[in-house]
Every structure is written in structure tokens, then in C-alpha cells.
């Protein structure tokens, strides 16, 4: 029994430093990724997203997102969304209506994949996975696991290009078994984006019904 306990202690003593090192490396990658995004100025990204439920694909979509700080303009075939840092306008193409709301942090994470870059600062453990090749680019794999078992979001897998610290792939897993996989297909930085880009313009949608949910 003493020998058994001793072996466990040895295993812990050799494993914990490795885990701590992986966590420190992961934090460094996440810090540099967040810093690179903040320094990028106006950003425009094209993306594709595939949704799964219990292992089965339930839909795919493509879109474009423009960002400046916490502001964003998101466009897909089904919806167009504007967020100016406080108010969100969501235009539903099929219904020709605009919903105005003050979104929660969780709602913003569901719309803006780049909001996920800052989640590691609270409520998540993280570690560095394998260094992999993704579509011909060398990337870091960072795995974030939610510490709060009650929240819907359970795990995030992030691929970041080693040379630029730009995210190219984000997998978001929910506790109900569903997940979304986002692939960034084009990424532009240093754009001069006016604040008006992130505000709904009624003149562009003259027939849309306005529904204020605030």
C-alpha cells in the first residue's frame, strides 16, 4: 500500500509541472491572439459555419463579419446584424423585419465569434493541444473548458496561425451535444471602418417592420 501511494505521488509530481507548463503556454497564445486582434484596427473576415447536433450535420452557412473593437456588422443569407457597442439590430431576411435589443454577453458570443477570444479570462481552464497544420498553415491548438458545469457552453477549440496569431478555426461545443465549427476563409486587417457601419440604416430597408424589444 505504501509503495502504491508513493507511486501515485511520484506520478502527480511529474505530471503537474507538465500541465502547468501547457496552461502557461496556452495563456501566452491566447494573450497574443487577443492583443493581435486589438491592434488589427478594422477587421473584415469571411467565414463558413457548420452546425451539428448529436454528431449529425444540421446546417451550413457562409457570411461576412466586420469588426472594430466590440462593434460588429454581421451578414449571412438569413440575417444581417449590427452592434454599436450597446444596441443590436437584427434584420431577418425572410420576414423583412428588424428586431432591436440590448444583447447579453452570452447572446453576443452566439453572434460574434471573436467575442470568444476573451472568454479565457474568466470561467475557463485552458491548455495547449497539438501544433497542427490547418489548410496549409501551421497553427497552435488551444482547448478551453468551462469551469461552470451549469452553463450551456462547455468547450472551445481554437486554431491560431503561429506566425500572425490570427484565428482560423473555432469549434464551440454545448452541453446538450450540439456544436458549431467556424472556419475563417479570408481575413483582412487595418481597415478604416466608419462607426455608421455598425448602426442600422432604415433608408436601406424602407419596407422592414421595426420591432423594439428593449
How would you characterize the overall build of this protein?
With 214 residues, this protein is α+β, with helices and mostly antiparallel strands. The protein has a single domain, classed as Clam (outer membrane lipoprotein receptor (LolB), chain A), CATH 2.50.20. It has helices spanning 2-39, 105-111, and strands at 42-53, 56-68, 71-76, 79-83, 88-92, 97-101, 124-134, 137-146, 153-161, 167-174, 178-191, 209-212. It has a twelve-stranded mixed beta sheet. The longest helix has 38 residues, at 2-39. The protein is globular and about 50 Å long. Mean pLDDT is 81; it is low at 1-20.
SSE map:
Layout: H1 2-39, E1 42-53, E2 56-68, E3 71-76, E4 79-83, E5 88-92, E6 97-101, H2 105-111, E7 124-134, E8 137-146, E9 153-161, E10 167-174, E11 178-191, E12 209-212
Parallel strand pairs: 6-12
Antiparallel strand pairs: 1-2, 1-11, 2-3, 3-4, 4-5, 5-6, 7-8, 8-9, 9-10, 10-11
Amino acid at each position: 500500500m505504501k509503495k502504491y501511494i508513493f507511486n501515485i505521488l511520484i506520478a502527480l509530481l511529474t505530471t503537474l509541472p507538465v500541465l502547468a507548463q501547457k496552461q502557461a503556454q496556452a495563456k501566452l497564445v491566447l494573450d497574443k491572439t487577443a492583443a493581435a486582434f486589438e491592434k488589427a484596427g478594422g477587421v473584415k473576415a469571411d467565414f463558413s459555419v457548420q452546425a451539428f447536433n448529436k454528431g449529425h450535420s444540421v446546417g451550413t452557412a457562409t457570411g461576412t463579419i466586420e469588426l472594430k473593437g466590440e462593434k460588429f456588422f454581421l451578414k449571412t443569407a438569413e440575417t444581417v446584424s449590427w452592434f454599436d457597442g450597446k444596441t443590436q439590430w437584427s434584420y431577418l431576411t425572410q420576414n423583412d423585419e428588424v428586431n432591436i435589443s440590448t444583447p447579453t454577453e452570452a447572446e453576443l458570443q452566439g453572434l460574434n465569434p471573436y467575442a470568444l477570444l476573451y472568454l479565457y479570462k474568466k470561467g475557463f481552464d485552458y491548455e495547449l493541444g497539438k501544433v497542427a497544420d490547418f489548410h496549409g498553415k501551421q497553427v497552435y491548438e488551444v482547448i478551453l473548458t468551462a469551469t461552470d458545469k451549469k452553463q450551456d457552453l462547455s468547450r472551445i477549440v481554437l486554431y491560431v496561425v503561429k506566425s500572425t496569431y490570427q484565428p482560423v478555426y473555432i469549434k464551440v461545443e454545448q452541453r446538450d451535444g450540439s456544436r458549431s465549427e467556424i472556419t475563417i476563409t479570408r481575413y483582412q486587417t487595418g481597415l478604416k471602418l466608419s462607426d455608421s457601419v455598425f448602426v442600422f440604416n432604415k433608408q436601406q430597408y424602407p419596407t422592414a417592420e421595426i420591432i423594439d424589444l428593449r
